[in-house]
């Protein structure tokens, strides 16, 4: 009886250990799935807008003549923006904001490029600002938005000499779209990601999460829920097609969102002519704010040389 009782006791402890292990493993799996789903939602769901979003600057504050414009995407959405006319030139710069951004974000550089003698178009992506509500992404759906903006600019200025300036996701879009549109004559890409996989992986790393399993989970969830996989967005694979058109890559040395290594990766695979400006001390999309005068002057000179 004693031996039998001991055997039962050991079996009970083993069963409890197995149950605790299974519970822990199940909780870890549920937690990992939750993080993956949260990641995909943050990337794709619209930002909740509040009353503060209506209290923004407009071209009136910087005394820029402008027209409030709207134009359609291929999938039937209406995007809204500002057109800064510059009579007497066929140079047009289209600005592309970052992820979930709004046209007001580019009012500083947009007004600076207008004063430098360019027509300028700023616009809101789908689901952002004043444009029609629609599902977002991190550059997958928004490629159609930038194409629609370029089409509108060409309607405004026939035979336009076009340049693109983009920030973060918008910089990645500028690379991807210019690679397929030889009529785009020059690109400035500020804080672009080389691959979306690299950005999401870096985000997990900041929270000390193992990037490989979480990337795989969130990537599969993103494909199932939102219709695209992370590998669909790889500007590093497209950037070589920009040559021989001029390219200026700008990146903050202290960028904590898109590590500066992305800029070096893009620069390494880009063709000539190309420039790389690493802004020491700048965070994500922060080079403009370190020295506005120098930033605008350098961007304007780049487009002046490329589009003249």
UniProtKB/TrEMBL annotation:
Pfam families the UniProt entry points to: Abhydrolase_1
Keyword terms, alphabetized: Membrane, Transmembrane, Transmembrane helix
Domain AB hydrolase-1: 111-192
Keyword Mitochondrion: no
InterPro entries: AB_hydrolase_1, AB_hydrolase_fold, DNA-binding_regulatory
Protein's UniProt keywords contain Transmembrane helix: yes
Coiled-coil intervals: none
Chain segments annotated as transmembrane: 20-40
Protein name: AB hydrolase-1 domain-containing protein
């Amino acid at each position: 009886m004693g031996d039998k009782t001991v055997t039962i006791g050991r079996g009970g402890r083993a069963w409890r250990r197995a149950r605790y292990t299974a519970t822990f493993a199940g909780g870890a799996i549920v937690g990992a799935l939750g993080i993956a789903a949260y990641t995909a939602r943050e990337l794709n769901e619209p930002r909740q807008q509040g009353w503060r979003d209506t209290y923004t600057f407009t071209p009136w504050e910087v005394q820029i003549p402008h027209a409030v414009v709207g134009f359609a995407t291929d999938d039937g959405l209406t995007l809204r923006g500002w057109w800064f006319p510059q009579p007497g030139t066929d140079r047009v710069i289209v600005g592309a904001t970052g992820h979930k951004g709004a046209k007001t974000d580019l009012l500083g550089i947009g007004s600076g490029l207008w004063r430098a003698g360019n027509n300028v178009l700023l616009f809101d992506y789908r689901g952002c600002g004043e444009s029609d509500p629609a599902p977002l992404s991190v550059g997958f759906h928004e490629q159609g938005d930038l194409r629609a903006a370029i089409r509108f600019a060409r309607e405004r200025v026939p035979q336009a000499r076009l340049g693109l300036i983009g920030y973060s996701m918008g910089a990645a879009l500028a690379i991807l779209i210019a690679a397929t549109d030889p009529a785009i004559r020059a690109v400035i890409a500020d804080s672009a990601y080389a691959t979306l996989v690299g950005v999401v992986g870096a985000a997990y790393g900041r929270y000390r999460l193992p990037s490989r399993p979480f990337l795989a989970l969130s990537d599969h969830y993103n494909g199932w829920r939102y219709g695209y996989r992370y590998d669909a967005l790889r500007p590093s694979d497209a950037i070589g097609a920009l040559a021989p058109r001029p390219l200026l890559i700008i990146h903050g040395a202290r960028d904590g969102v898109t590590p500066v290594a992305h800029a070096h990766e893009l620069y390494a695979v880009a063709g000539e002519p190309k420039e790389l400006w690493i802004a020491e001390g700048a965070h994500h999309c922060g080079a403009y704010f370190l020295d506005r005068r120098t930033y605008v002057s350098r961007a304007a000179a780049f487009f002046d040389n490329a589009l003249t």
